[in-house]
Design a protein that fits this description.
single chain; mainly alpha; 27 helices
Amino acid sequence: MTARISSQKQGLRSPLRRRHLSLLAVLAMGSSRRVLIQAYINSGLPAHTQRAWLQKLTDDICLSEPGNLSPEEIHNAPMLMSAWAKTPKKEESSSSGKKGKERAVAVEGLLKRMIDERRAGNTNAIVRTQDYNAVMKSWVNSGEMNAAAERVEQILRNMQDKFVEGDEHVQPNAESFELAIEAWTIASDVDYAPARAHKILEWTNHLYTSSENDKAAPNTNCFHLVLRAWASSGKLEAPIMSEHLIMWMQHLQQQGLESAKPNTMCFNTVMAAWLKSGDITAEKRIRQIFEFMELSSRKGNTDIKPDSSSYNIVISSISPAVKKLYDSGGARRADKILARLEMGFLGGDESLRPDTIIYNQVIDFWAKAQSIHGHYLKARDVLDRQIAMYESGVRKCRPDVMSYTSVIAACASTYGSKKERRRAFDLAHKTFIESCRNKFSHPNDVTYGLMFKAVGRLLNKADEKDRYARTLFNLCCGDGCFGEMAFLRMKEAASPELLKELTNDCEYDGLPKEWRRKVVTPRRSSNASKKSKNMTDLRP
């Protein structure tokens, strides 16, 4: 009995239970439907419950005869449209399916019903700009991509036509144009989407400059949406179009239109367009844009001051030179950029807070700079700076397995004298031990593979190689990380006798699965995560 009472009390404490009780309390009070709708929208009930309730209220309005809506129902219609247009968080991931389209159709049905009511002689039924915006927003969130973008643009042009004809209640505003542009930026099923978004932006500017619509002033958000569409398109002309947009924004600002002034995010998007283009001049152009941003910020234009994302893009732009062209100077350039970021952050600029990704990139660049004497020491120096930054309270740059593994990779690829190779091995060993002690950077199959490589390439005495290979093998199998890479590298590091003893003279496929239970096979699809790609890059 006590347990039942306890469970009932626990149920009353749950947030969902409290929301249901709040709604029931409003119903018990016999409140007006207007209050009910507002209380319901704010209740936080499950998506399917909300949708069913909204559908009932919508049917009550839409299925009635034109000319018979009460003042309260006319007042409630815009609230219902707004409620439909707001996609619940639980539906956001599936909004591209049937539910998203159903919401858009429901909102448009309410809008049409209000128009019919007005035509039937009800002068209180006035459709306003925000009602049209709710319809457009619902289509933007519907997941219908190209079809939704076409419909949103059609609605926008219809609004402008009605406004020109004299209906001031439906004058398109800044939100209207932003929604139309956004609809095209997410229409990924057609390759002409960026160009269509660009055309709407040009039309917006024309309406404003020709005084056809004083609320059509293009703003930074409109431009950024188009910039983002070009940057993510991967088209050959994307970086050039992005630069033209930035110059257009600067021109409008000089003419006095402050709403269109570019900001850091806009310039970052232009650099991202160059980064994605794969153009051989991308690194140089990105660096020029970055230096322009820094110069402008020093002159007082803080709106385009570089932030941590700017630095990240600049460093990422060096990657092709390091990985494809084997440019030994790439690691130095990246390290200098990172040092500027660190200096700015330590000087008090919070927008320059570094993260794990930017440190890992620079360490990886040093790992691939084998032609530079002592490159492994440079890689370790960057890791030490990362650790110091993390221990000072910058949680975003916590070293992970990639950080330690890249340093080990740098050590394992060292050439030179016996003394130099011994020094590199000792550093690899130290880094490996640190990695084992940290739960966030515990070695994986790639780490073990690179340590076996270090044993085989850097140690000289056969007995020392076997001793270390045996210990490493036991640790690796115990962790379930004896992957194919580790197996192949162990064959090079251990003597034939030790290899036969440890593996029972079996090939990789014949080894116990327990030894490789945590090994992740790299995916071949283009949708593989960035982290998987980076770890694959470390494979020798």
